[in-house]
Amino acid sequence: MSLIVKIILLGVFFIYPFTIMQCFFNNQISSMCDVALLKNKKDTQIFSYDDFHTEINYFHTENIHLFLFFLDNQPHDIIQFIKKLQNDAKYSNHPMALFSYKKEYLYHAFFELKPFQPVLLPISKKNNANLMEYIDFYYKMYQTSYKKVLEFDFSSCFYRFQIDDILFAEAKNRKVLIRTKDDSSIEIPITFHHLLEQIPENTLIQSHRSFIINPCNVSRIDKGAKHWTASFYNTNKKAFISRAYRQATLDIVFIHICKSNNTECYPMIDMYYFQ
């Protein structure tokens, strides 16, 4: 089997990346596509694949967001391979772009396959614009859904968190303790600073020099003591909110509460803080 990781723009701790599978590409076609694939996309990885004999189940071990196929080497076999992939439950509706120098190959694929994005080579300015628009559409979908997963990959262990399941994270002796909805606590060997650098936009927020919270899971904010605290659903664990982060935390939590309840009020906090 030939499976080559071509580009990975990630660190030890990473956001689940936008993953592109280039199938049966040669070096020339790959270099043509790189600009469209990677423009303004920092969290992208590209795999190259060229083995007809691999079972489709192999792709179940990967989470691929976009398939790209070059038809011209063995068009009939490649179209049959794509058909098998499109008949698989996991990838039946996945976006695919097919590249060819010959219109007849793309016409044949059109009648054989489910909808796909055709790209006639060489890539003209119009084709390039269409390809970039197609990729950007699915990349934006990824930004609002797939990126809500955090993974930690170390030599000795692997962790995967749905961001929606995270209540808060706390700095602990140059490590991070992550508390989740099932009331579990998992210590991860990364620094708080590294975690801050990798948080996806519009997900977790910093509330204190040692705490990051999930505003979607906050049930109450108590401000009676010197240090404000955030409480969460189905647990007695709490996170601190320091003075420097109070207003930003209140504003973001308020927005999430209003969205989830479809209301303009927030009964847990005195309203003058929002005036």
Any descriptors?
disordered N terminus; alpha+beta; 275 residues; 5-stranded antiparallel sheet; single chain
Tell me about the largest β-sheet.
6 strands, mixed
Number of helices: 6
Strand content: 25-35%
Q: Which shape, going by the Cα principal axes?
A: elongated
* Count of beta strands: 17
Spatial arrangement of strands, main beta sheet: 1-4-3-5-6-7
Note down, in words, how this protein is organized.
The strands form 4 sheets. A 6-stranded mixed beta sheet has the order 1-4-3-5-6-7, with helices on both faces. A 5-stranded antiparallel beta sheet has the order 12-11-10-14-13. A 3-stranded antiparallel beta sheet has the order 2-8-9, with helices on one face. The relative contact order is 0.10. The N terminus and C terminus are likely disordered. 28% of the residues lie in helices and 30% in strands. The protein has 275 residues and is α+β, with helices and mostly antiparallel strands. The termini are far apart. It is built from 6 helices and 17 strands.
